[in-house]
Q: What sequence folds into this?
C-alpha cells in the first residue's frame, strides 16, 4: 500500500510554507523544520568569504580618502603657498623630478617655452590632489594643456604621498616624461 502524501506538502515533495502572523509581522515558517540551534551550519560560499574579508579594508581606505580630502575648507587667499615651477620645452620637462610637500597648498607654475603645444599629463597624480579650480584640467581631469610661449598657474593641495608618472601625451614617444614625488 502506498503511503499517503503529507497534507502540508505540495507537488514534487516541496514543503509548503505557512504564514504565521505575530505582533503585526508576517513570518514564513517551513513545516517540520528543525529549530535553528539543531540545524547544521553550512560553510560560507567562497565569494562571500572574500567579500567579508574585503569589507573592513574597503571601509578603511574610504575613510582615509575622505579624511585626506580637504574640499573647500582651504582659504587660498590666506594660505602659505609653496611654488613649484615646471618648464616644458620641445620634448622635455625641466626639472625631470618634480617634488611636492604632502598637505602643503602649492602653486604649480607651468611654463611652455617651446614652439609646440604641450600638456602636463599625470592621471594618478591628479586623482590625489584638490585643485582650487578643477576646470583647469578640462574634461579629461588628468592633464593641463599649455599653448606655446604661454604659462598657467594651478593652485593645488596634495592629498597622498607617492611617486607618479608625468608625460606630455603628444610627445612621450620622444622622451618627454618626468617623475612626480609627493613627500
A:
Amino acid at each position: 500500500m502506498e503511503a499517503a502524501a503529507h497534507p502540508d506538502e505540495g507537488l514534487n515533495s516541496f514543503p509548503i510554507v505557512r504564514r504565521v502572523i505575530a505582533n503585526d509581522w508576517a513570518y514564513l515558517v517551513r513545516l517540520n523544520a528543525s529549530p535553528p540551534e539543531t540545524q547544521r551550519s553550512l560553510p560560507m560560499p567562497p565569494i562571500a568569504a572574500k567579500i567579508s574579508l574585503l569589507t573592513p579594508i574597503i571601509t578603511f581606505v574610504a575613510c582615509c580618502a575622505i579624511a585626506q580630502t580637504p574640499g573647500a575648507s582651504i582659504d587660498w587667499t590666506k594660505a602659505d603657498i609653496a611654488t613649484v615651477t615646471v618648464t616644458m620645452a620641445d620634448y622635455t620637462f625641466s626639472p625631470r623630478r618634480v617634488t611636492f610637500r604632502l598637505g602643503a597648498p602649492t602653486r604649480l607654475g607651468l611654463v611652455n617655452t617651446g614652439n609646440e603645444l604641450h600638456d602636463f599629463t599625470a592621471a594618478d597624480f591628479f586623482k590625489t590632489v584638490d585643485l582650487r579650480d578643477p576646470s583647469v584640467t578640462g574634461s579629461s581631469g588628468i592633464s593641463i594643456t599649455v599653448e606655446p610661449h604661454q604659462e598657467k598657474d594651478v593652485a593645488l593641495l596634495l592629498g597622498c604621498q607617492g611617486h607618479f608618472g608625468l608625460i606630455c601625451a603628444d610627445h612621450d614617444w620622444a622622451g618627454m616624461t618626468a617623475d612626480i614625488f609627493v613627500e
About this structure: The longest strand covers residues 82-89. Confidence is low (pLDDT under 50) at residues 8-12, 66-72. Residues 81-182 form a domain with the Immunoglobulin-like fold (CATH 2.60.40.420).
